[in-house]
């Protein structure tokens, strides 16, 4: 399930890079297009308004925008992370049954046996209400796409934003420092998410621990520093929400235990591989070679032998 989460984040961030690469067209030095008219220009207006609130400081305006967006998304993201934690706890509960199926899968010698083991694994998940994706989704990231785009193009095509500086960092140019800080903030979030997780599950989470921060690093290194600042502050918020979910993790475990008392783990009846069926199919494929023989040929041969005697 964690591998699916890594794939989800990778695809989402890759889509962001593709989306930002060429959505605004420029003619005679002036940008135009749907994204510029409906995202970049409103983004510029919002940033200018926020900058005025912070003493014409666009760096603090970006931080303020990040705080607003993340506070709006915080309940959704905590709820999603809570569902993911709930699924992790239920996965731990079905571990003995899952281990038996996985051993069958490793020992399978035919495609029929492998398919039967896979069907049993899916049936085990379904019978116990376990999601194949572990409660993971990319909706919060997708919701932020318009914000990413608005901020990116607002910085790129706004003279005030592109020339602004924050603590000596030019917001209109890429910043290695902010890229590294964004990387470290999401790496810290990944580390915090592993606190209180069983060692067996930590092994499956290691890929996710690296993939998401590396993708963040890749995006921020090629984007204006203003976007890197957005990711850095967003990573700090991600750490905060992870700490919140870690605080509630014992309560979630108790909820899972109470549910398992009322509804014990169900173990579906194993699916038979039926290797005989495959043999029968082989025999069926070989039968057409003997169909040229007439049905009564053997009977007639016997009659001829008796007549000869």
From TrEMBL:
It is a multi-pass membrane protein. The chain crosses the membrane at residues 58-78, 130-154, 166-187, 207-223. Residues 58-246 form the Membrane insertase YidC/Oxa/ALB C-terminal domain. PROSITE patterns: PROKAR_LIPOPROTEIN. Residues 260-309 are annotated as: Disordered. Keywords: Cell membrane, Chaperone, Lipoprotein, Membrane, Palmitate, Protein transport, Signal, Transmembrane, Transmembrane helix, Transport. It is found in: Cell membrane. Its main location: membrane. The keyword Transferase does not apply. It comes from the Bacteria. Residues 266-295 have a biased composition (Low complexity). Pfam families: 60KD_IMP. Required for the insertion and/or proper folding and/or complex formation of integral membrane proteins into the membrane. Involved in integration of membrane proteins that insert both dependently and independently of the Sec translocase complex, as well as at least some lipoproteins. Belongs to the OXA1/ALB3/YidC family. Type 2 subfamily. HAMAP family: YidC_type2. This is Membrane protein insertase YidC. It comes from Lactiplantibacillus daoliensis. The gene is yidC.
């Amino acid at each position: 399930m964690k591998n699916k989460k890594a794939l989800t984040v990778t695809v989402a961030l890759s889509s962001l890079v593709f989306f930002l690469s060429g959505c605004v067209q420029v003619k005679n030095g002036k940008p135009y297009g749907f994204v510029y008219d409906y995202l970049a220009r409103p983004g510029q207006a919002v940033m200018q308004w926020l900058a005025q609130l912070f003493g014409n400081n666009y760096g603090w305006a970006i931080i303020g925008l990040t705080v607003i967006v993340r506070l709006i998304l915080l309940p959704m993201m905590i709820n999603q992370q809570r569902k993911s934690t709930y699924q992790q706890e239920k996965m731990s509960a079905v571990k003995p049954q899952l281990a038996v199926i996985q051993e069958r899968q490793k020992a399978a010698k035919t495609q029929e046996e492998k398919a039967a083991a896979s069907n049993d694994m899916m049936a085990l998940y379904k019978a116990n209400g376990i999601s194949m994706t572990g409660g993971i989704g990319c909706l919060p990231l997708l919701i932020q796409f318009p914000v990413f785009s608005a901020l990116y193009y607002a910085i790129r095509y706004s003279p005030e934003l592109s020339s602004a500086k924050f603590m000596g960092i030019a917001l209109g140019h890429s910043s290695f420092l902010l890229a590294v800080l964004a990387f470290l903030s999401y790496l810290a979030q990944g580390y915090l998410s592993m606190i209180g997780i069983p060692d067996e599950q930590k092994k499956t989470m290691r890929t996710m621990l690296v993939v998401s921060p590396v993708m963040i690093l890749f995006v921020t290194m090629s984007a204006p520093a203003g976007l890197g600042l957005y990711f850095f502050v967003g990573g700090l918020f991600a750490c905060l929400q992870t700490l919140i979910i870690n605080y509630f993790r014992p309560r979630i475990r108790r909820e899972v235990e109470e549910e398992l008392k009322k509804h014990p783990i169900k173990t579906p009846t194993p699916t038979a591989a039926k290797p005989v069926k495959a043999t029968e199919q082989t025999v069926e494929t070989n039968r057409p070679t003997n169909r040229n023989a007439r049905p009564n040929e053997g009977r007639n041969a016997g009659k001829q032998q008796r007549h000869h005697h």
